[in-house]
Design goal:
The structure holds 2 protein chains of 2 kinds. By secondary structure, chain A is an alpha/beta fold. Chain A is 33% helix and 23% strand. Chain A contains 18 helices and 21 strands. In chain A, helix 5 (121-134) packs across helix 6 (150-163), helix 13 (356-363) crosses helix 14 and helix 15 (402-412) runs parallel beside helix 16. The longest helix of chain A is centred in the middle third of the chain and has 16 residues, at 180-195. In chain A, 47% of the residues are buried. Chain B has 2 domains: 1-32 and 317-349; 52-314, Orthogonal Bundle (ABC transporter involved in vitamin B12 uptake, BtuC).
């Protein structure tokens, strides 16, 4: 039986015209036009930062576009807020469900719907049950939201959006962090909704999911729509559209003798609310570079944090040189010669409002109580020159460009280091800066440091790594030799294809209850 | 950008005028003559050497407290527990005086020890707030607020219990100490040059600590970006604890001054609200050490000047608080407005609309 309000409105066609959105100097959406007929499951593919989320936030009223039009059923609408969007029939399911963990399901369900001082909880609970039964979701209206798994919270959110009259449903990475049975249930529900002439936009970077579910696919790259596809899909074409053609930007580092073992991981297990990594073993030698590839949130960041002592492993050993450091603090790692350069340079790496000179003082030795500013400035000038930073000792770091901030971070590294860990070392930098940064990093390798870095740029991974680890939903590939790895194969693995056994069979954590 | 600075100055002056205006409105609403009220405050604070020496008496503890607060503010901490730290400073000083007044030691030595005890008391009370934050995950604002109440309770319990006057316990506090255990005052006034000297020394010490030392720079780094400071190798929680204890030390010194230079005993409201007033001063000067002394002097003058309002105009002396409070509110608001305007100007310059969020 269908509930009346599920069919009360006609099917709705969505059209986006010439959507533009910039953040500072980043053109997150660059003239994107897309038409999605009712009853379709439209896949939106793209790597991190391609502009998927921005586009969907614009469509769901979360943020306004700078330019461009949104048409629903051919009528131009302006969506000023998410509430506005849902009134027009557009609802968005966010990657982290926007619900209220301390509330009961039924209260969460009612929230946000107008209807007087005293909502009819009993009627709402009844409708929630009926709706849930229709999609074979088992949700108890009287339970509390924080007892649900991520997958169940998603189910609740979908029902809530439908109940509020959503004709268009946007799903942002819905298959991240949910269990396989939940994923299957979700897909069944989505197909059912499409059959009811709902319009679905399925945002993902998982090729397999998109290929299985979507009746058409649009691919975004660097803020622009670069192509569309319809079944049958050719994975290789999709990968190429997502990542672009490989452009060689220089010579690979020649094979070179590696030094003493620096880092050893034995049977390492890591865990956060969404992911679980198990049984990771690795040995890293002086001078070696390891690249971590994978979509953001696939476990690389967890891994890098563990190597820095910023995340305590659930199990396993981390041996640095001679010392067993599993469970030790970052300061222990720091003293053992580990450096960690976060991706968020200004948020985590540098201290806004302090000058370059201040930073060099902070990162340097403490010879006494009082700072000798003349000496500090001289040292800063020297480093600024060595690292070719465009700034003066007194320049506050927030006024440096991204490339210069990254150079500053490199300049702040101590003289003797064993292990350098970098998150997206060249993200947002131009070619010149990128090459410069890597030249400096290679010097570190020659001096005997080992490097582990995360990058979303496949070329960077292939060019600068000796070995590559690919991450997918908490699964980690064995170390792959970068010299013989092709960009195509790497791209497929990042998208979850071409793994020795189907990664879909691996359950990510979240059968365990996750709490917000 | 001299233009921006001139504009900023203009906005600040506007804020002060607005504060005066709104206080005037309050006065008008109560039917009091505003001009007379203001002139009475001026006369009451700087009208004679006697009045002005009273202003300096009030200025000293306020300056010491504010100096301490600059340290915690530097580390990005809101040390609301400062009131309790002042109180505990007074309590420890009183305790030490009680313990040592019969010892027959040189009074100067006894006073010095008592004031050191006060600094210890303040530091320990602040360490509690710090430990609650670093080890218990309790925000220092909530922890400090709670500890303020506990400090008040402890103080009252001592005055009406353990240290009560022989015969009858009284709101007027414990038995006054012998005059030998007071800081020496200038003849004919309540002003102690030792207290003033300690206050000036405190703010100078903090000025150089924050401006010129490795310690100060690290504190600042923690305050501006704790994560980055940690990654750069600064031991963050240790420094957080240390900044709490240093601030508590100064607060304790202020409490000790209240006992040894002003009241010569422990009274229920021994902190005189200097902790909270110090917070206002620190905010008003936007945490710049160089401006603390003059602004604290101004606030002390308002406090003293308003004392005779009830006598002269039948107005409550709380008027000083109204003026101080509105002043801080308007100056903070002016800051906010100015930043918003500047951002607006920047936006129209490069034509991009920043929305706060990013992709």
């Amino acid at each position: 039986m269908l509930i009346p309000f599920l069919t009360q409105k006609d099917a709705m066609e969505v059209e986006l015209r010439e959507i533009h959105k910039t953040f500072g100097t980043v053109h997150a959406n660059n003239g994107i036009s897309l038409r999605v007929p009712a009853g379709t499951i439209q896949g939106i593919l793209g790597e991190n930062g391609a502009g998927k989320s921005t586009l969907m936030k614009i469509l769901s009223g979360f943020q306004p576009a700078d330019r461009g039009e949104i048409l629903l059923d051919g009528k131009k609408v302006s969506l000023a807020s998410p509430a506005d969007a849902i009134r027009h029939g557009v609802g968005m399911l966010h990657q982290d469900p926007l619900d209220f963990p301390p509330l009961k399901l039924v209260d969460d369900f009612i929230l946000g719907r107008g209807g007087g001082l005293f909502p009819d909880r009993r009627a709402a609970a009844r409708e929630l049950r009926v709706l849930a039964a229709q999609f074979d979701f088992s949700l108890d209206p009287e339970a509390h939201v924080d007892t649900l798994t991520v997958g169940e919270r998603q189910q609740l959110e979908i029902l809530r959006l439908l109940w509020r009259g959503a004709q268009v449903l946007i799903l942002d990475e819905p298959t991240t962090g949910i269990s396989l049975p939940q994923k299957e249930k979700l897909f069944v529900a989505l197909k059912k909704l499409a059959a009811q002439d709902k319009t679905l936009l399925f945002v993902s970077h998982k090729l397999e999911d998109v290929e299985f579910l979507c009746s058409r696919v649009a691919v975004l790259r660097h803020g622009a729509l670069v192509g569309t596809a319809q079944p049958p899909y050719h994975t290789a074409d999709l990968v190429e559209m997502m990542f672009g053609k490989a452009i060689p930007i220089g010579e690979r580092m020649a094979g070179r003798p590696l030094g003493k073992p620096i880092l050893r991981l034995d049977d390492l297990a890591l865990e956060d609310a969404r992911l679980q990594i198990k049984g990771l073993s690795l040995e890293l030698r002086a001078g070696e570079v390891i690249g971590l590839a994978g979509m953001e949130g696939s476990g690389q960041a967890l891994f890098l944090e563990a190597c820095a002592g910023l995340r305590r492993p659930v199990n396993g050993r981390i041996t640095l040189g001679e010392s067993d450091l599993a469970g030790a603090s970052y300061r222990r790692f720091y003293r053992c010669g580990v450096a960690y350069l976060p991706a968020a340079r200004l948020e985590q790496g540098l201290v806004p409002s302090l000058s370059l000179s201040d930073h060099f003082i902070l990162a340097g030795e403490t010879p006494g109580v009082f700072i000798d500013h003349t000496k500090a400035d001289a040292l800063a000038r020297e480093q600024i020159k060595t690292y070719n930073i465009k700034g003066a000792p007194a320049t506050p770091v927030e006024s440096l460009s991204g490339g210069n901030q990254q150079r500053a971070l490199l300049a702040l590294l101590r003289q003797r280091l064993e292990l350098v860990l970098l998150e997206h070392p060249t993200r947002g930098l131009d070619i010149e800066s990128t090459i410069y940064i890597w030249d400096k990093l290679k010097e570190r390798c020659v001096e005997g440091a080992a490097i582990i870095f995360i990058s979303a740029d496949l070329d960077e991974i292939l060019q600068y790594s000796d070995r590559v680890l690919v991450f997918f939903a908490g699964r980690v590939s064995p170390p792959l030799d970068a010299a013989t790895l092709s960009a195509d194969r790497l791209g497929q693995m990042i998208g979850g294809k071409g793994w020795p056994t189907a990664p879909a069979a691996v359950l990510p954590v979240s059968d365990v209850v996750t709490r917000a | 950008m001299p233009d921006a600075r001139r504009f900023g100055l203009l906005v600040q002056v506007g804020a002060v005028l607005l504060a005066l205006l709104s206080t005037t409105l309050v006065l008008l609403a109560t039917g009091a003559p505003p001009l007379e009220a203001f002139s009475s405050i001026v006369v009451g604070s700087v009208g004679s050497w006697g009045k002005f020496s009273d202003v300096l008496v009030s200025w000293s503890p306020l300056l010491v407290v504010t100096a301490g607060l600059l340290i915690t503010f530097s580390a990005g901490l809101w040390n609301i527990g400062i009131e309790g730290q002042v109180t505990l400073g007074a309590v420890f000083t009183t305790g030490a005086l009680f313990a040592l007044q019969e010892s027959g030691w040189n009074p100067a030595l006894v006073i010095t020890l008592a004031m050191l005890a006060g600094m210890l008391g303040g530091a320990l009370w602040a360490a509690l707030a710090g430990a609650l934050k670093t080890f218990g995950g309790v925000n220092e604002i909530f922890g400090g607020l709670g500890l303020n109440f506990v400090a008040t309770g402890l103080n009252l319990w001592l005055i009406f219990g353990l240290w009560k006057r022989p015969g009858v316990a009284s709101m007027s506090g414990t038995v006054p100490f012998d005059e030998a255990f007071s800081l020496p005052t200038l003849p004919g006034s309540r002003l102690s040059l030792v207290a003033v000297g300690l206050a000036v020394l405190s703010i100078l010490l903090v000025y150089f600590l924050l401006k010129g030392t490795y310690f100060g720079l690290r504190l600042k780094a923690i305050g501006k970006n704790a994560k980055a400071a940690y990654l750069l190798g600064v031991p963050t929680w240790q420094y957080t604890m240390l900044s709490f204890m240093l601030c508590g030390m100064f607060a304790g010194l202020a409490g000790a001054m209240q006992v040894t230079a002003v009241y010569h005993r422990l009274i229920p409201s021994i902190s005189s609200g200097y902790g909270f007033l110090g917070l206002l001063v620190a905010m008003l000067v936007n945490f710049h050490p160089a401006w603390v002394a003059p602004v604290a002097l101004f606030f002390a003058a308002l406090n003293i000047g308003s004392i005779q309002l009830p006598v002269v105009l039948k107005l409550d002396s709380a008027l000083a608080g109204v003026l101080q409070g509105t002043l801080v509110l308007f100056v903070l608001m002016a800051d906010g407005v100015q930043q918003k305007l500047m951002r607006g100007a920047l936006r129209s310059e490069d034509g991009t609309a920043e929305r706060g969020e990013s992709a």
